[in-house]
Amino acid sequence: MEHTLPPLAYGYGALEPYIDALTMEIHHSRHHQGYVNNLNNALKDYPDLQRMAVDDLLRSLEAVPEAIRTAVRNHGGGHYNHSLFWTMMKKNGGGQPHGNVAEAITMFFKSFTAFQDEFNTAAKKVFGSGWAWLCINSAGKLEVISTLNQDSPLSQGLQPVLGLDVWEHAYYLKYQNKRPDYINAWWHVIDWAKVEENYQAVLG
Ligand code: MN
Asked: Residue 110 Cα, ligand 1 centroid: separation in angstroms?
């Protein structure tokens, strides 16, 4: 079973003006496709691993043969992280969270604004390439973390429910070095219904 690039549920221009169409096209059709291709290439001599879902590979990286572990971590992580990322955005998104995840955000961060501040700080502080995440930990609590490169929260035993790609390839064409402007814009395209779905998939 080959891993494949999932199609977007919206057009490349749907997230304008917050995320521009050219960035979305290059990001999806070239960067994400590249992770998919490199993951398939890494797994080509490992039929047992080819049958595994990418999230299961990332949850048990230590069980992946050392010869391909770094490739699976980087390119499997890239494939999983981006597949999730696309689904957490939509045209006319943004606003406030709702449902169980909104209640949990208020419980664990005191307010939505306090959560946003913590998430923004995590996203801004990533040195080099990486991601900021809202995750559910093994105790069922929400936490904000960042990861470097394409490391996935799954490999730390965390389940991501919301994530932001802060690699320069995600924003450089429109925002150049102004990562904080990209972060602020991204809040306008979040699909909170999808975030709620991700939360309920773990905690009901
Ligand atoms: Mn990316």
From this structure: 30
Is the pTM higher than 0.90? The answer reads: yes
Of 139, 176, 147, 177, give the one whose Cα is nearest residue 164: 147
End-to-end Cα separation, the chain, in angstroms: 31
CA of 183 to the centre of ligand 1 (A): 14
- What span, in angstroms and rounded, lies between the C-alpha atoms of 89 and 3? 22
Residue 37 tokens read as 């291709």
What is the whole-number distance in angstroms between the Cα of residue 34 and the centre of ligand 1?
Answer: 11
Query: Rounded to whole angstroms, what are the CA distances from 164 to 85, 139, 146, 148, 156?
Result: 7, 23, 9, 12, 17
Q: Using one digit for the tens of pLDDT, what is the confidence trace for 12-70?
A: 999 999 999 999 999 999 999 999 999 999 999 999 999 999 999 999 999 999 999 99
Rounded distance from Cα 107 to ligand 1 centre (Å):
31
Residue 46: which of 23, 72, 27 has the closest Cα?
Answer: 72
Q: What is the C-alpha separation between 75 and 154, in angstroms, rounded? A: 14
Encoded tokens for 100: 């169980």
Distance from the CA of 167 to the center of ligand 1, in angstroms? Answer: 6
Q: Residue 100 C-alpha to ligand 1 middle, in angstroms?
A: 28
Beta bridge partners of 144: 134
Q: What is the distance in A from the centroid of ligand 1 to the CA of 171?
A: 9
Q: 27 C-alpha vs ligand 1 centroid, how far in Å?
A: 6
